[in-house]
Write a structure and sequence with these properties.
68 residues; mainly alpha; 63% helix
Length: 68
Amino acid sequence: MKEKEVVKAIEDHVSRQNDGWKFIMGKEVLTKQAFLQKLGKDKKFRTTVIALVYNLSIDILTRKSSSE
């Protein structure tokens, strides 16, 4: 997936969450609106979030089941 596609998927997913949704990274806590705004404007933040999505996806896809 291209970066724009990943960002769009993140935006779509977060937009569907309830208004109490929060993004927590370290000491920073962002509301849904603040997260979407920062994702759109802050390239370093966007790059970090995309890296988190890719890394989590790889972890999930390569995870061994507990029965193996």
